[in-house]
Amino acid sequence: MKILVTGGAGYIGSHTCVEAIKADHEVVVLDNFSNSSGIALDRIAEITGVRPVVVEADLLDTPVVEKLFKEHSFDAVIHFAGFKAVGESVSEPWKYFHNNLVSTLVLLDVMRANNVFNLVFSSSATVYGDPEVVPITESAPLSALNPYGRTKLWIEDMLRDIAAADSRWHFILLRYFNPAGAHESGLIGEDPNGIPNNLMPYITQVAIGKLKELTVFGDDYPTRDGTCIRDYIHVSDLAEGHISALDVIESVKGCIPINLGTGEGYTVLELVHAFERAIGKPLPHKIGPRRPGDSAATFADPSLALELLGWKAKRGIDEICNDAWNWQSKNPNGYQTR
Ligand code: NAD
Ligand code: UD1
């Protein structure tokens, strides 16, 4: 297939480009590098031997997107582009509504005008809000806890409505649990701006000495060690899930949500201990107060992904930690240095 990957220079997008190229798809990346580096594309070329076509552009720029679709005959689009920082979405919701929603509308309009009806969308387990039951199946109630989550939910709703109105569309909504780790080469990985919000990049930056210590947000949850449980999924497994989605997208009727998780939950302290095994030394950490809005336990029922995509996660928590550390230690300042 010839595929357009929006946001293909980003964390999950870059790993998906690698897997797509490995699967012999032809990849065109559109990215404005608002949260990524062009160096990621060099690294994709280094890993695969193939340099994807890269268009540095904003998905909000309709004429540019129209031109792109005139120049290439795409079979499908994987849509990663968007902002994802929960805290920032609370303080600047308009920025999230504009970038995430309007860019998706532009994309859908241009796709329809060019008869491209296959879309894989980056959704998130955040659409389950604070889940009442775990493991979470795709039929669990949906809600949003913050403006970022609301953009995911609204886009999902838009795609459901569009699919119901026009049977030419095939949408797969991939609801990611907690992506972590990096490509086994250590050439691409997560490179957050400023102080990381998410657990794994925070841990790796403590390990490299950029941050002093990890604060574990609460140890009084009703879990086996009192810290929150999450479903950490290796980013290369996640990337492979997108390729499996491309394989079946033509046969999908309408709009289908699919969880991408491992089905295994780990506590914060279990992840810290796994990481300590990976680096062979203790990781400085202390217990702090709960982070508002956190749910005690979130992990996937990934059985639908196996049934519909023939996909399941292959890599475990130790591989996630080893690969995250391999990336961070080879690239202490992310893409700024080698
Ligand atoms: P990322 O920030 O690394 O990648 C997003 C990419 O989109 C970046 O390269 C950025 O420059 C680009 N981009 C943003 N707005 C754009 C625009 N208007 N035009 C062109 N390019 C634009 O994030 P990621 O972690 O790779 O996440 C990818 C997608 O997956 C996002 O939609 C995110 O919401 C979703 N998601 C991520 C996680 C996670 O934990 N990383 C979890 C669930 C869902
Ligand atoms: C976050 C986002 C969520 C997004 C998900 C996957 C928030 C509130 N939610 O959720 O929208 O879908 O990432 O990208 O940001 N932790 C610590 N110390 C830290 C950082 C995290 O103890 O310094 C704990 C958290 O309390 C949580 C776990 O580690 O229990 C994982 O945190 P994080 O990586 O932020 O992911 P989520 O909370 O699942």
Q: How would you explain this protein's 3D organization?
A:
The chain has 338 residues and is an alpha/beta fold. The chain has helices at residues 11-22, 39-48, 62-71, 86-91, 93-113, 147-165, 199-207, 235-248, 268-279, 303-309, 317-330, and strands spanning 2-6, 26-31, 53-56, 76-79, 118-124, 170-176, 178-180, 214-217, 229-230, 232-234, 254-260, 266-267, 285-288. Strand 2 (26-31), helix 2 and strand 3 form a beta-alpha-beta unit. The radius of gyration is 19 Å and the shape is globular. The mean pLDDT is 97.
Identify the notable features of this structure and list them briefly.
binds uridine-diphosphate-N-acetylglucosamine; 11 helices; 40% helix; binds nicotinamide-adenine-dinucleotide; globular; seven-stranded parallel beta sheet; 17% strand
